[in-house]
Structure formats: C-alpha cells, structure tokens
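Support case: NAP complex. Customer-provided input:
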Amino acid sequence: MNKNSSNIMALAPNTSNKRETVCIFGTGDFGRALGHKLIQSGYPVVFGSRSTQTSSLIPKDAEVLSHAEAAQKAAIIIIAIQRQHYNFLTPLAEILHGKVLVDISNNLKINQYPESNAEYLAQLVPGAKVVKAFNTVSAWALQSGTLDASRQVFVCGDDMEAKQMVMDIVRALGLTPLDQGSLLAAQEIENYPLQLFPMWKFPILLSLGLIAFFFFYCLIRDVIYPYVYENKDYSFFIAISIANRICPILALILLALVYLPGVLAAIIQLYRGTKYRRFPDWLDKWMLCRKQLGLVALAFASLHVLYTLVIPIRSFVRWRISSHIISQVLNNKTEPLDTTNAWLSDSYLALGILGFFLFVLLGITSLPSVSNNVNWREFRFVQSKLGYLTLVLCTAHTMVYGGKWFLSPSSYRWYLPSAYMLSLIIPCTVLVVKFVLVFPCLDKPLTQIRQGWERNPQYSE
Ligand code: NAP
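Agent response - structure generated as follows:
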C-alpha cells in the first residue's frame, strides 16, 4: 500500500463514532455561528425557528423546522434566544420533558434579574435538565475561528449526566469546558461577560492618580520653578522629560506595590500567630490584583526604555551638548574625564538594563501559556526570588541616577526633593522589611505559621 492511500484511510470518517443530533432554537447570530461550528465538528444540526423558511445565512447542511418538530429530533436543545422571549417555551414543556436545555444567554446589566436566566429557564420548563454554557464565547469568535482568547467555556448545571453531555460537545468543538458546579453558579457565569477588567480597576485607577500627582509635582519643580526664578521657558519638558520621569517612577512604585501586600501579610501572620484568620478585605483584593499591578509596571518600564532611546535625537539635548563643546573651544579648555561620574553613569545604565531584562522575564512568566508550563515551585521562584531581585536592581538604578546629588539639599526646589527620591520611599520600605523578615528569629516562626502552626490554637484538643 502506498503512503497516500494510508493517509486517505486515516482521514476517512469513522461511521461508528456518529455524533448525536443537536437542536438549536433560534436562527440568530449565535445560533447560526454555533450551528456552523457543530456541523464542522460532525454533529447533525436541526434548527427550531418561528419561520421554517431556510435562508442563505443558515448553514446549508442544517434542517430548519418548527420548534416542536425540531425538539423531537434531539436530546440536546441549545436555546439561542434572548431571555425575554423564553415564555414561548411554556407550551412546549411536554415535548421538552427530559431533554437537556442549554442556556447560553447573557444580560445587559450585572444581576439584571433576581434569578439567573438559566434558573428562570428551569422554572419555565421544570421537566427539562438545564445546563448553562457557551455564554462567554462570542458568535464572531465561533464563526471566524479566532477562539484563542476565549477557549474556556464555563459550564454549570444540576444534572451531572446532562452537564457531561454538554461538556462533550464543548470538547468536540475544540474548546475547554470548565465545570463551575450546580445551576446556582449560573448568575456568576452570566455576569462574567459584563465585567469590565475587574482586576485591572485598582492598578489603572492607582496609576492615573500617581500620574496626576507626579505630573504636577514635576511641572512645579521643572517648569514653573525655572520660569519664576530664571525666567526660562522649559514648557517643552512636558512632552518627553516629564513623561520620562513619570514612567520610571510609576514602574518602580507599582513594582514595589506588587511585593508590599506579601510583606504586610507576613507581618499580620506573625502578629496574630496563625494563618487561619482572614486578612482584611482590602489586603485580599490587593493580593488578587498583583499580577495586573506588575503588568502595568512593566508597561511603564517599557515606555521609559523607549523615551530614553530618543534622548540623543532631542533638539534640546543636541543644543546642550554642542553649546558645552563650543564653550570649551572658546575658553580653550577641556574638562578631564571624571571617572567617578563615568562609573556612576555606567552603573546606572547597567542596573537599568538588567532590571528591565528581569522585569520582562517576570512579565513573560505571568502569561498563562508560560505559567501553565512551569510547576508551582518554579513559578514561585521566578515571581518571588527574581521579582525581589528585579526590585533591588530597579531601586539601585534609581538611587544611582541621583549620583552625587542623591539626598543633597541643593537639589531641592521650593523645599521639594526630586521626584525620583519620592519614588524610592515604598521600594526601600519593602526591601528593608523583607530583609528584616529573612532573619531566622522571624523567618522560622513565619515558616511554621505558614505550615499550619498556631501560637494560641483556636481548637485545642
Ligand atoms: P439574535 O441575533 O437577535 O437572535 C435571536 C434569535 O431568537 C432570533 O434570530 C430569533 O430566531 C429568535 N427569536 C427572537 N424573538 C423571538 C420570540 N419572540 N420568540 C421566539 N424566538 C425568538 O441574538 P443572538 O446574538 O443570536 O443571541 C442569542 C442568545 O445568545 C442571547 O441570549 C445572547 O445573550 C446569547 N449570546 C450571544 C452571543 C453573541 O455573540 N451574539 C454570545 C454569547 C451569548 P428565529 O427567527 O429563528 O425564531
């Protein structure tokens, strides 16, 4: 047998694996997209519609029948219809008895109704086995095949067998079912698509607040102060100089804020002598959005890199260099190389490059496709050990930036220190406290507490 014929054999359809017919109520956008995908995956599809006339939009291998006729042809019926039209199902209750009804609907507002759409469907057709699924997948993604971002399909329902049947279909479509439990979870699943970056809210609002604060701070120090005292117009600093001050400041502060809650949690656990008491809500929420804080920090660090790369082509910088050279020529005097300055400048750059490299590494390992491929220990090693090393390097980069003027009172303007000095407060605090926590007298009890030991056990035998 030649190679080609064996391939043809392998590709021939396996008739013994014939899939069961799936019925879809509703020939709207989602119904058609799902029907199309089901047919591609080998499922016979029958549509239940108010109009049995077929159209060019409906997949050509599908049948279009009345709701009652279509329901009789399949054990699974996907309801691709908005909740407000569900009452047409009540007269069909007898036909739908014992069938698996898949509710895929979404609402326009979070908690729009007292009960979830799936629970409402179960009340309307009490004899049916209702399963919630597919509501987080968009019709467009199904049709175009661009499902990378939303491969997960949340499934919930009270009947295990019905849920299993739906999860088999989900898998056959190349998607990943995630069992969320009973139908009680439906309301939460219906709220998912309505949430607007819930974990990103805090990092973004915090970043906006910090941007506003540091923008005005730098504006006062770098633009208004020279204007008032030297009558110099440095307003063009807003475009690059001030932006390139704010970006590294935010990157450093946000990176430190990724590690601050862990340090606070350790202090709380040491103080309480147990890990079995809940952290305050604000700390819990803060811990949950650490990844997003880190990614926003990485975005600011990347912007800082870009802004830094354009420094040599800035007109102001070129003017300053050329006027410095010309004044040396006019005075017939050259300045000797200041090796201390050269050291400071090279160390500053080296620390920044290494810090940014580790920052990018942290960002890459936080991507699900990468973090799913490392074990828990490896993930913790990268996010904790390398994370702290990144914080140390970036903090040192900022300190060395100050060079000889670091903490010098002459750099104050209107009693305001340079903005980079303010940015060091949180990272230095985190690093000092972390350093103290590493001492054996604190690290040992903390490790014991995290392994379940309690200073004053609540439930002593
Ligand atoms: P759609 O394009 O408006 O289609 C809804 C279909 O429902 C209509 O085509 C119609 O089908 C049927 N219908 C309308 N009024 C009806 C009535 N009074 N009685 C009986 N059937 C009626 O909506 P869709 O975008 O496909 O969405 C359908 C459901 O899927 C919604 O619950 C939505 O929340 C959910 N969903 C949609 C998407 C999406 O990307 N579109 C994603 C996830 C979930 P016939 O004309 O064939 O009867």
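The chain has 19 helices and eight strands.

Case will auto-close in a few days if no follow-up is received.
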